[in-house]
Amino acid sequence: MRFGTAILALACATACLADSLTLRDGQVVQGTYIGGTARTIKLQVDDTVKTYDVTDVATLQFTPPAPTASAPVRLQPQAGATGAAARKDPADSRGRI
C-alpha cells in the first residue's frame, strides 16, 4: 500500500509542476500547490512542504498540466450492418423501397 501511495504522490507532483508563488518581498518560489487554509498556502518544493502565510503572498499562479496523448477512437458500425448498409447515411432513407 505504501508503494501505491508513493506512485500516486509522484503522479500528482508531475501532473501539476511549476506552480509559482510570488511573495511580497519579490521572491518567486516554484513548486506544486498541495493545499492550504484561509490563512496559509502549502507548496511542495523539491522534497519538502513549505507553508506560507497569505499576508506574505502577492500572487499564486497555477500552471495547467500538459495535455496527454490519447488513443484514437475507432467507430464501430451498428450491430448487424455490413458493407454499404453500414456506410449508408440515415438521412438518405426517405421510406423508399
Question: How would you characterize the overall build of this protein?
Answer:
The chain has 97 residues and is α+β, with helices and mostly antiparallel strands. It has a domain at 17-64: Roll (SH3 type barrels), CATH 2.30.30. 20% of the residues lie in helices and 32% in strands. The chain has helices spanning 2-15, 83-87, and strands at 19-23, 28-36, 40-45, 48-53, 57-61. It has a 5-stranded antiparallel beta sheet, with no helix packed on it. β1 (19-23) and β2 form a beta hairpin. The longest helix is centred in the first third of the chain and has 14 residues, at 2-15. It is rod-shaped, with a radius of gyration of 26 Å. The model is unreliable at 1-11 (pLDDT under 50).
Name its key features.
five-stranded antiparallel beta sheet, SH3 type barrels, rod-shaped, alpha+beta, disordered N terminus, single chain, 5 strands, 97 residues
Radius of gyration computed on alpha carbons? 26 Å
What's the level 1 CATH class of the domain at 17-64? Answer: Mainly Beta
Give me the number of helical elements.
2
Strand content: 25-35%
Number of strands: 5
- CATH topology group of the domain at 17-64: SH3 type barrels
